[in-house]
Amino acid sequence: MVKKAAVVSAMVAGAVLGAGGWTAAGHSGSPEASGRTAARAGHPQGLVVSRVNLKVRSKPTLYSGVVALLRPQQHVLLNCEKRGGWVEGNPQWYRLQGVNGWVSARYVHNLQPVRAC
Asked: Is 102 part of any domain?
């Protein structure tokens, strides 16, 4: 099960970040390089601020299925934000760009403004 989660996490990292200076194996460039790519792509960038792997869910609730995992301090591209289930006092969720999944805004710091879904 751990191996499957690692493979899914690597696939999500590749799909979410594309050619933005990050690879599925880890960081291959500076955060500034991936920030420039995010700006060019027209999607705001976010930073995972959880202490452990963050679950990417199929819907913006804690009760929906987990589709992938994100690592702490991983940069992601955000598509839009929407109210969903409350997570430690925060009802906002971000839909990830390039992946059919949602992450709680409680554990992702948006580095640019995010449009509503």
From this structure: yes
